[in-house]
Structure formats: structure tokens, C-alpha cells
Specification:
Helices cover about 80% and strands about 0% of the residues. By secondary structure, it is mainly alpha-helical.
Length: about 110
């Protein structure tokens, strides 16, 4: 799941980079080419859409990053719990091993 979130973050980051490059800057950008008067979505509406899309992608990156950290931390906690349980089982087995050896010697 962590890898899925990482891939989604990378895709969203690439899309965000492309959106920022397309936006109209002070000197004109790629969005300036859409400024013809007979378009349904003129330059102002295109700029608004690009800005909203940029903010949305930024929010998606933030949320996915927080989720990825939470999942990664959860996986680390599970791994730590499993190692602690394995260590306790090993200690119990080590404690019982001399008693099992004594029982085998007594049976012989």
C-alpha cells in the first residue's frame, strides 16, 4: 500500500509541475495562447481552472503523503511487535530446552 501511495504522489507531482508550467505568468505563459475571444472558456476561466487544479493537486499530495507516513509507521510497528513476540517465544523455548533434555535422559 505504501508503494501505491508513493506512485500516486509522484504522478500528482508531475501533473502539478505541468500545470504550473502552463499557467499564465506575468510575461505570458502557455495559457496565453488560449486567449482568443470566441472560445467558450476564455483566458480568465482557463486561469481559474488551472489555479484550482493546482491547489487540488497540492492538497492531494499532502493527504497522500500523510497517509503514506501513517501506513509506513504502522508497518514498522507491526514488524517490531512481531520481532518482540518471536523473541519471547525463543526465550520460552530456550527456558524449556534444558527441562526437555532432562526428561529424555530420565526416560533412557
Amino acid at each position: 500500500m505504501y508503494i501505491l501511495f508513493t506512485i500516486l504522489i509522484v504522478i500528482a507531482a508531475i501533473l502539478l509541475i505541468l500545470l504550473v508550467l502552463v499557467q499564465n505568468s506575468k510575461g505570458g505563459g502557455l495559457a496565453a495562447g488560449f486567449a482568443s475571444g470566441n472560445q467558450v472558456m476564455g483566458a480568465p476561466k482557463t486561469a481559474d481552472f488551472l489555479e484550482k487544479a493546482s491547489w487540488t493537486l497540492a492538497a492531494i499530495i499532502i493527504v497522500l503523503s500523510i497517509l503514506a507516513v501513517g501506513i509506513n509507521k504502522g508497518q514498522q510497528i507491526n514488524a517490531d511487535d512481531n520481532s518482540a513476540i518471536t523473541e519471547q517465544v525463543q526465550e520460552a523455548a530456550d527456558a524449556l530446552a534444558p527441562a526437555a533434555d532432562l526428561n529424555q535422559e530420565a526416560a533412557e
